[in-house]
Amino acid sequence: MKSNVFIISGPSGAGEDSVIKGLKKYLDIERVITTTTREMRPGESQGRPYYFIPKEEFKKGVKNGDFFEWAEEDNNNFYGVTHKEIKRARNSEKIVIWKVDYKGVLNLKKMMPEIPAILINAPLDIIEKRIRNRGRVSEKFIQKRIKYAQGWTKNKNAFDYSVENEEGKLDETVLKVAKIIKNDLK
Predict the structure, then answer these.
(1) DSSP character string of 94-152
(2) CA 143 to CA 148: how far, in whole Å?
(3) What is the DSSP letter of 185?
(4) What does the pLDDT average to over 34-44?
(5) Residue 160 predicted with pLDDT over 70
(6) Using alpha carbons only, what angle is made at residue 19 by residues 14 and 23, rounded to the nearest 5 degrees?
(7) With 0-12 CB in 10 A as exposed, 13-18 as middle and 19+ as buried, what is 39?
(8) Which residue in 161, 104, 116 sits closest to 1, CA to CA?
(9) Contact 158, 164 (CB under 8 A)
(10) For residues 158 and 12, what is the distance between their CA atoms, to the nearest angstrom?
(11) Tens digits of residue pLDDT in 7-37
């Protein structure tokens, strides 16, 4: 059975969020909504792009078996997807995009190998440049992100597809990903 769910993953600065946003021009998509313990940022709201809950509530959900998958990320926050959210996504009539880090991809491909995983990547120097251009971040933060980005490169064989998001070619990248999704649904 073909999956309506597609994993999109890439390191910070590779452009996976921009690709997902761009896909909306070409495909009728929605997202798997991840639950996180990180603070809500300006412009975000409950369910957009995450469900935000306190760490204690998250840990209780883990203990109760509410989460299909979860992880503690490099920023010391928890991220995970509930069984309830997976059921909602799989029953959707839309194409569902699931944004996951490389550790999540490694786990998900063991549990749900039928879900295609698409890697959005860029050279480390471009990733570093994009992170720096985001504004006020410390050198320590930048170096931590660069080190974490290497996890995608080391685990690229876990992905079914890989698309390079070249500098200044976002539209081309989005079209390549849209074509992959359309072809995989056939």
Answers:
(1) SEEEEE--HHHHHHHHHH-TTS-EEEEE--HHHHHHHHHHTSS--HHHHHHHHHHHHHH
(2) 9
(3) H
(4) 92
(5) yes
(6) 170
(7) exposed
(8) 116
(9) no
(10) 18
(11) 999 998 999 999 999 999 999 999 999 999 9
**Where in the chain are the domains?**
5-185
pLDDT in tens, 111-128: 899 999 999 999 989 999
For residue 36, give both structure tokens: 């996180």
The CATH code of the domain at 5-185 is 3.40.50.300
Query: Structure tokens of 62?
Result: 């883990």
Alpha carbon separation from 134 to 42, 100, 138, 142 (Å, rounded):
15, 21, 11, 11
Phi and psi at residue 69, to the nearest 5°? -150, 150
Q: For the whole prediction, is pTM greater than 0.85? A: yes
* Cβ neighbours around 74 below 10 Å, total: 14
Please report the pLDDT score of residue 49 as a whole number.
86
